[in-house]
């Protein structure tokens, strides 16, 4: 079977599984007759009206989408980006230095053991209500899987590659860029995939506590006013955001790690 045909079969199979899941959801909701368990035939139209029924000039985004959905996505991406830079930089430094690792790792393991949502009220008191508090809450939640995976990846770089680079007197910066980071990249991307889910969680939690807008705040409002369809729409949009970000991360990973497939 050719590669193109395998991709087509896989795509069709995935769509079939998705259709079966939606059909199961629809049947379960209709059979249960629970007013709080809505079927997709109600949730998806509500989601469309809430965020994607705007004018063409605004790319079909409604006023609510620009006021709540886009700010939430911006905060999440900002926190994810900052956490990725911090986690990768510190992780490589710790992973490549036995002394730094011995000194710092106890602190790292203590800090990562603290559940990130617990610290959101602390950030609220220290930083105050608003976007900076929400971004740093996301950073604190996301940085640990990235950091720990970067440490592990940098620590297990093939010793022969580094010895060869030293023998040829390759500068330290080039060893970092050409040997250490590419070798650690699979582990780093594993941490980033975990970070995407945590970024979504921390975005919602931080907006529950200290935000004047965002879909987390919108969820709280919907819960208080009994807007069940909006609550389900927010749940679905969060899942879709996770899928899109994971797919984009997968594309980036395949591009960055193309050298591995070429050398296999």
Model description:
By secondary structure, the protein is mainly α. It has 11 helices and no strands. It has a single domain (42-263), classed as MetI-like (MetI-like fold), CATH 1.10.3720.10. Helices cover 84% and strands 0% of the residues.
Quick take:
The chain has helices spanning 3-32, 40-51, 63-96, 98-112, 116-127, 131-155, 159-167, 172-210, 215-225, 228-256, 258-263. The protein is an all-alpha fold and 264 residues long.
CATH superfamily label: MetI-like
CATH topology: MetI-like fold
Helix-and-strand structural type: mainly alpha
Q: Tell me, what's the shape?
A: globular
Mean pLDDT level: 90
| Element-by-element helix/strand order | HHHHHHHHHHH
Low-pLDDT sequence parts? none
Defining traits:
mainly alpha; globular; MetI-like fold
Helix and strand arrangement:
Layout: H1 3-32, H2 40-51, H3 63-96, H4 98-112, H5 116-127, H6 131-155, H7 159-167, H8 172-210, H9 215-225, H10 228-256, H11 258-263
Helix pairs in contact: 2-10, 3-4, 3-6, 3-8, 5-6, 5-8, 6-8, 8-9, 8-10, 9-10
């Amino acid at each position: 079977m050719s590669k193109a045909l395998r991709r087509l079969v896989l795509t069709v199979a995935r769509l079939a599984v998705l259709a079966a899941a939606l059909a199961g959801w629809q049947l379960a909701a209709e059979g249960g007759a629970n007013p709080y368990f809505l079927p997709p035939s109600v949730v998806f139209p509500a989601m469309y009206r809430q965020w994607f029924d705007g004018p063409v000039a605004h790319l079909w985004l409604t006023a609510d989408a620009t006021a709540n959905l886009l700010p939430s996505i911006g905060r999440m991406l900002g926190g994810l980006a900052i956490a990725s830079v911090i986690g990768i930089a510190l992780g490589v430094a710790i992973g490549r230095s036995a002394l730094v690792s011995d000194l710092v790792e106890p602190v790292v393991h203590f800090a990562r053991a603290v559940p990130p949502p617990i610290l959101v009220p602390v950030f609220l008191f220290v930083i105050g209500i608003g976007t900076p508090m929400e971004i740093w809450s996301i950073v604190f939640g996301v940085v640990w899987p990235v950091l720990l995976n970067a440490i592990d990846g940098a620590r297990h770089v093939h010793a022969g590659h580094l010895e060869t680079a030293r023998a040829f007197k390759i500068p330290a910066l080039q060893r970092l860029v050409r040997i250490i980071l590419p070798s650690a990249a699979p582990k780093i991307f594993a941490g980033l995939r975990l970070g995407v889910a945590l970024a979504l969680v921390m975005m919602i939690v931080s907006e529950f506590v200290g935000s004047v807008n965002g879909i987390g705040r919108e969820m709280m409002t919907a819960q208080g006013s009994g807007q069940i369809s909006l609550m389900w729409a927010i749940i679905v949009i969060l899942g879709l955001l996770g899928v899109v970000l994971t797919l984009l991360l997968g594309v980036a990973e395949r591009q960055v790690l193309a050298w591995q497939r070429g050398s296999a």
